[in-house]
Each structure stands twice: as C-alpha cells, then as structure tokens.
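Notes from hallway chat w/ T.B., transcribed later so I don't forget. T.B. wanted the structure written out for a chain they're using in a teaching module, and asked if we could keep both sequence and structure tokens in one place. Agreed to drop them here.
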Amino acid sequence: MSPVSDVIELRALQVSAIVGVLAHEREREQPLNIDIDIERPFDEAAANDDLTATTDYAAVLQLASRVAREGKFLLLETLARRVTSEILAFDGAISAVSVSVRKLRPPVAELVATVGVRCSRTR
C-alpha cells in the first residue's frame, strides 16, 4: 500500500481561550490561531464528490474550537496535544494529524508576531 499523500488543510482558525502560566493569562482569554493538517485518503470522496467519504472539516473546526474554549491550559503544548488526540478519535480514517497553535499576542518583551507549537501524531 502506498503512503497517504492526501491532506485536508485548515488554516488560521481563530479562537479565544485561557492559555498561559502568567496571572493575567489565567484571568482572561487571549486570541489564538490554530492550523490543522489531516492526512487521509480521499480517493472515494473525490471520485464520487461525496462528503460522507471524507472527513467533515466543519466538524473538525468545531471540535478544535470546543477543546480550546472549554479547557484552561497552562501550556500551548497541552492544548495542541489535546486537539490532536480528539481529531484522531473523531475519525478512524485519519492516518495522521498535525496541529499548530499560536498565541497572537504573546506576553514577551521582544517584538514577535506569534509564538506557537506544533504537535503531529500518526496511527
């Protein structure tokens, strides 16, 4: 069997969530961006133009948003890992998933656009 080369890309999902170790980060939500790459074959979906034969990305976005909003994480790493695990559990046809989470306003003295992490897992 050849390796999967089909990828569903979800870019810059904007959510507000509690993530961080500093006191002010624990008190109010901050803006985050989440990118998700889902590897899974979509030959059948493409051949038949059939949503039921692929992963519903609207449902994945809703899942990632829910995980971010409902959790109160100290680390971006924990949030990324939780989203990754939930996506793998959501659809057994997914062979691999990669989730990047970025803080849009990181609490650092240096000028930086974002800080973030990426978590990748395969079955």
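Follow-up for T.B.: The mean pLDDT is 95. Might be a good example for the class.
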